[in-house]
Design a protein that fits this description.
Number of domains of chain B: 1
Distance between the termini of chain B: 43 Å
Largest sheet of chain B: 7 strands, antiparallel
CATH class of the domain at 127-271 in chain A: Mainly Beta
Oligomer: heterodimer
CATH architecture of the domain at 127-271 in chain A: 3 Solenoid
Radius of gyration of chain B: 20 Å
Number of helices of chain A: 4
CATH topology of chain B: Glutamine Phosphoribosylpyrophosphate, subunit 1, domain 1
CATH topology of the domain at 127-271 in chain A: Pectate Lyase C-like
Helix content of chain B: 25-40%
Largest sheet of chain A: 11 strands, mixed
Number of helices of chain B: 14
Strand content of chain B: 15-25%
Structural class of chain A: alpha/beta
Number of strands of chain B: 18
CATH architecture of chain B: 4-Layer Sandwich
CATH superfamily of chain B: Aminohydrolase, N-terminal nucleophile (Ntn) domain
Strand order of the largest sheet of chain A: 1-2-3-4-5-6-7-8-10-13-12
């Protein structure tokens, strides 16, 4: 294993490599990417994340993490364009503060995925829990199925950096709460032809960004701070781009998905609570 | 009271984190050893900080299934002698013994833990029902005897709890050696109240047990309301009120658990306005009657009694709850990963909406639809008339 990644090993790396499988053969059709498999069974999150960090520092560019069950903060603070495949259910705050990696979860995920992530991508082949994309600043998250409460809470954007979340199924309540920027797309797949999102209080306190919901929403229960806006040509372009990316990950018929009407929700004001404490 | 302050050697006046819950019921009644719930709670290590853990088990004492099992904790020999005398004066004691325990590194200064199998004699009850008599005596012991209290007092069940991590408490009580068809468990991260043996979860009264993640800002008003009905809060922890409120509303007042949900996590007025008229009348009536038992603040709870387990989170889900089904088993957990750990081939998992209970009952094969005890089920005509 010495110098597999072209760098001298740190103590941590030596320790972790002892627990890792050998560099695995390249899957077909892949360019030569240094790939490492890690068995996470029974390892606490702190140790597991130290291993990941050491492996990335050591030059690994594709890491398969097996046997994950509840370990938190996977991929946190990694700042390289590394690919991480998670087998098992990762713990809370997957990809928190992440800056660059591409994480693919082969099952469902828990709460707080992509918390304050800066760039990179998280792809979840299942459902995700509450506060997905909490305070997200950039990058993208794709969830095949459903998500929990307060997804996209306080997402933000700056100039051309716009975080994106695409949800294949539907969302529970308070979607886009206090949202300050970015794009939320909810497809309601599997409910056709009568797509109806049960999400209440969508966009409560929202003051930036945009939410696109395919099918209908319960307008009686929309947040007080959002309104339905007409779709523009640029919205169609944007949906084609991101829903197309969703289809690349999970399959599906892009034209059928886009052929269905979307509801676009925008904030009514940039400062909904500007007068809350001012009389 | 002095006991609680004595054991709070951690200076944990106020910290913020989350507790962890786990529970499962085998609806066929088949009993399972405690190892899986220990694994599940240990897997959620980050949710606790070693300042409290516990387990409730049902179907625990088949050899004494007709007798009330009192699990008691005593600070010292003197308080144990006093409690022993009290129990023998007020009950017929069939059998008593120490709860088997081990010395565990890290478990400091444990109390004396003992269990009694007993029943009240009719002459002693003076017009009270058996259950009301038990409640009365438990309240008297917990509020008046110094350094002794009853942890659980139901038939064929028991609570094992203390200050420590879940694996430590399990080792201390030899939890892996017990078998039960229904287990609930808790790992604690105390927020506003002291860490002491009585303040660990589950909280028990009769065969009720409650584990809780969150904090009840309504504790004061809940407590005062319950005092009117003879329930005295002595454990210095908000969760206690949920056990007593369940006993009052479900056992004494006869509300089905699905309706008790409307007491604890009543639908928001804005949502109620969109329900059918009969339902609106029913829920208004419940809210008017039991407004003081509304549980305010973030919570997820698992409430259990013989043959039944219910998971519930607050109306806007400020604490997590995941559910899963495998065959005849229903699981409830703070985290999905813990369900997959103990049941890798779980058939279905989901997350109910806030205020929407997940209920498992003996002899009812769990399905997502049957477990989902949404109070939205049709309101029966007789119920609606009371509005």
């Amino acid at each position: 294993m010495a110098n597999t990644f072209g760098r001298p090993h740190s103590r941590i790396l030596q320790y972790s490599v002892a627990r890792c499988a050998a560099v695995s053969p390249q899957p077909e059709g892949r360019s030569l990417v240094p790939t490492v498999t890690v068995d996470a069974s029974g390892i606490l999150y702190r140790e597991l994340n130290m291993q990941l960090r050491a492996l990335v520092e050591g030059g690994a560019r594709r890491i398969i993490v097996r046997g994950v069950l509840g370990q938190r903060y996977l991929g946190t603070s990694l700042q390289e364009r590394v690919e991480i495949v998670v087998e098992g259910v990762p713990g809370n705050d997957l990809g928190a503060f992440m800056d660059g990696p591409h994480i693919e979860v082969l099952s469902s995920a828990q709460d707080g995925c992509g918390n304050t992530m800066n760039s990179g991508k998280i792809v979840i082949h299942g459902s995700a829990g509450d506060i997905l994309g909490h305070s997200m600043r950039g990058g993208s998250i794709f969830v095949r199925d459903n998500v929990g409460y307060r997804v996209g809470i306080h997402m933000k954007e700056y100039e051309s950096v716009r975080p994106v979340i695409v949800i294949g199924g539907t969302a529970q309540h308070f979607l886009g709460e206090y949202m300050a920027g970015g794009i939320l797309i909810v497809l309601g797949r599997g409910q056709e032809p009568d797509i109806h999102h049960p999400s209440h209080y969508v966009g409560t306190g929202m003051h930036g960004g945009a939410i696109y919901m395919r099918g209908s929403v319960e307008t009686d229960f929309l947040g007080k701070e959002v309104g339905v806006a007409p779709m523009q040509a640029e919205d169609e372009w944007l949906l084609r781009q991101y829903v197309g990316e969703y289809v690349e990950h999970f399959g599906g018929d892009l034209d059928a998905l886009l052929g269905f009407p979307f509801v676009k929700l925008l904030p009514l004001t940039k400062r909904p609570y500007g007068r809350l404490y001012a009389y | 009271m002095a006991w609680a302050s004595l054991e709070n050697r951690y200076g944990d006046d106020k910290v913020y984190d989350a507790c962890g819950l786990f529970g499962f019921i085998d609806t066929t009644g088949q009993r399972h050893p405690g190892d899986r719930i220990i694994m599940a709670l240990t897997n959620m290590k980050e949710r606790g900080n070693g300042l409290g853990a516990g387990y409730a088990a049902y179907g625990l004492y088949p050899q004494f299934s007709e007798h009330y099992a009192f699990h008691v904790m005593c600070r010292d020999r003197a308080s144990q002698t006093e409690l022993d005398g009290y129990l023998r004066r007020h009950f017929a004691v069939v059998h008593d013994e120490p709860v088997p325990s081990r010395h565990v590194q890290g478990i400091l200064d444990p109390p004396i833990v003992w269990r009694y199998f007993l029943f009240p004699q009719s002459a002693q009850m003076v017009g009270r029902s058996e259950e009301d008599y038990i409640v009365h005596q438990v309240m008297t012991i917990n509020s008046q005897l110094q350094g002794a209290f009853v942890v659980s007092s139901g038939k064929n069940m028991g609570v094992f709890k203390g200050v420590g991590h879940p694996e430590q408490i399990a080792e201390f009580y030899r939890v892996e050696g017990y078998e039960a068809y229904l287990w609930t468990g808790h790992t604690r991260f105390p927020t506003n109240t002291p860490a002491w043996w009585g303040g660990a979860h589950p909280f028990g009264l009769l065969d009720w047990s409650v584990v809780h993640n969150g904090e009840l800002s309504s504790y004061g008003i809940n407590r005062r309301y319950l005092e009117m009905y003879g329930y005295l809060c002595t454990m210095q922890t908000d969760t206690e009120v949920i056990a007593y409120a369940s006993d009052l509303v479900i056992r004494r007042h006869g509300l089905p658990p699905e309706r008790a949900v409307a007491v604890f996590a009543s639908p928001l007025w804005a949502e109620l306005a969109h329900r059918p008229e009969a339902e609106q009348r029913l829920y208004r009536a419940i809210r008017q009657t039991y407004g003081s038992l509304l549980l305010n603040g973030p919570f997820t709870i698992i409430v259990a009694r013989s043959g039944e387990m219910m998971g519930l989170s607050d109306r806007i889900r400020l604490r997590p709850l995941a559910a899963g089904i495998k065959g005849d088993l229903l699981y409830i957990s703070s985290e999905l990963s813990a369900i997959y750990l103990v049941e890798p081939t779980v058939e279905e998992t989901w997350t109910p909406l806030g205020g929407e209970p997940v209920i498992g009952r003996l002899h009812q094969r769990p399905t997502r639809a049957s477990a989902n005890g949404r109070a939205r089920e049709p309101v029966m005509a007789t119920e609606a008339q009371h509005g």
